[in-house]
């Protein structure tokens, strides 16, 4: 910082306890500038910007290639001192000066703040002070932007159910099956996902129940795509011996600060996938996968009303699993619509209505076309 400037700081006023902002909110604050002696000024302004950026490098040496792209949502600027063509420009006298500012975030469908493996979405306040023959003084701070609560789509309340069978051929005989059911598709931050698992191990092999919830990150730059994932939940349960049947209720607690699902960014998307499978040594694992939509904490789905009709788990008790005696009758046809077919892509475009329309926007805002959807058959980087 220049010897002439004692303090140069940027402050904004929180509007709620969580210190978050969303579309249409007012952002107010002040810039504090304390100077020891008079300074000449070319321009002095504060701006608020919303941007998404992705970048990654592939290859090495002469074959190294960098892929990058950028998407801007808005740029708002407020001048304290406008640029002037006059020879003798404005001056700021010695002392402490406070410059208030006020912006309104655009009322449009924008993605939430996010930082991923190869990109980010940022909403930034920046103040710049330009002086003749001096280096520009600048400081900035980020806002935590969240999606607005616009209500829950009915299709996010629909249950999901799937079954996978496996017949043992090598290193064993018999067959096994796993049926997985969830009571809905959309869950808010901090909520618990209840997963109902019915296992019939009629094979000669012991198996283990495993499950995970993955955050899938997709980055797009032109025609190139980079994908990565992060485990939110990943657990292994006790084995199911040969010839036994088991039914479980598995609880998956979601973090309160978990990034919500968003697909309204042309170059960056965040989605989630629930996977439940039986670990079979030296053989392919029968697995069931479902898409999961994470919603803002205020955007609640109705509370859990109990397990699906007829679900009666078995003993003995296990940690975080709730076995009961009884037999599970097959559900009536059509009770649990198969929203996910593991032979096709697990995200929008494959199961109509599983995801909300991320491009339901206010008039006047026209985002770029959606990027390619996640393909689980492609390797992640």
From TrEMBL:
All residue ranges annotated as the Arrestin C-terminal-like domain in the record: 172-303
Pfam families the record matches: Arrestin_C, Arrestin_N
Any one Gene Ontology cellular component term annotated for this protein: plasma membrane
GO biological process: nervous system development; protein transport
SUPFAM superfamilies (UniProt xref): E set domains
InterPro entries xrefs: Arrestin-like_C (IPR014752), Arrestin-like_N (IPR011021), Arrestin_C-like (IPR011022), Arrestin_domain-protein (IPR050357), Ig_E-set (IPR014756)
Chain intervals for the UniProt region annotation (Disordered): 359-381
Entry-linked PANTHER family: ARRESTIN DOMAIN CONTAINING 3-LIKE-RELATED, ARRESTIN DOMAIN CONTAINING PROTEIN
Family the UniProt entry places it in: Belongs to the arrestin family.
The protein, known as: Arrestin domain-containing protein 3-like isoform X2
């Amino acid at each position: 910082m220049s010897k002439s400037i004692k303090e140069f700081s940027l402050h904004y006023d929180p509007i709620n306890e969580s210190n978050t902002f969303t579309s249409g909110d007012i952002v107010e604050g002040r810039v504090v500038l304390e100077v020891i002696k008079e300074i000449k000024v070319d321009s002095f302004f504060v701006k608020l910007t919303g941007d998404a950026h992705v970048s990654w490098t592939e290859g090495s040496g002469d074959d190294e290639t960098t892929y990058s792209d950028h998407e801007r949502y808005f740029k708002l600027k407020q001048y304290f001192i406008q640029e002037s063509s006059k020879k003798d420009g404005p001056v700021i006298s010695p002392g402490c000066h406070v410059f208030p500012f006020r912006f309104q975030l655009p009322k449009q469908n924008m993605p939430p703040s996010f930082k991923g493996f190869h990109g980010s979405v940022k909403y930034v306040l920046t103040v710049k002070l330009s002086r003749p023959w001096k280096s520009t003084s600048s400081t900035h701070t980020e806002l935590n932007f969240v999606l607005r609560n616009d209500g829950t789509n009915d299709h996010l309340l629909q249950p999901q159910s799937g079954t996978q069978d496996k017949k043992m051929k090598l290193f064993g005989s018999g067959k096994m099956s796993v049926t997985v059911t969830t009571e809905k598709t959309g869950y808010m931050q901090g909520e618990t996902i209840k997963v109902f698992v019915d296992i019939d191990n009629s094979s000669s092999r012991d198996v283990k129940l495993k499950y995970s919830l993955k955050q899938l990150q997709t980055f797009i730059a032109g025609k190139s795509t980079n994908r990565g994932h992060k485990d939110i939940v990943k657990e292994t349960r006790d084995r199911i011996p040969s010839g036994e049947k088991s039914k479980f209720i598995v609880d998956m607690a979601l973090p309160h600060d978990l990034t919500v699902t968003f697909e309204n960014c042309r170059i960056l998307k965040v989605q989630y996938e629930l996977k439940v499978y039986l670990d079979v040594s030296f053989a392919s694992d029968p697995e069931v996968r479902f898409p999961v939509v994470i919603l803002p904490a205020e955007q609640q789905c109705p509370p859990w009303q109990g397990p699906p009709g007829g679900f009666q788990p078995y003993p003995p008790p296990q940690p975080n699993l709730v076995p009961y005696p009884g037999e599970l009758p097959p559900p009536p046809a059509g009770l649990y619509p198969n929203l996910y077919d593991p032979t096709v892509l697990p995200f929008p475009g494959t199961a109509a209505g599983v995801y909300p329309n991320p491009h339901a926007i206010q008039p006047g805002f026209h985002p770029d076309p959606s990027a390619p959807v996640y393909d689980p058959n492609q390797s992640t980087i």
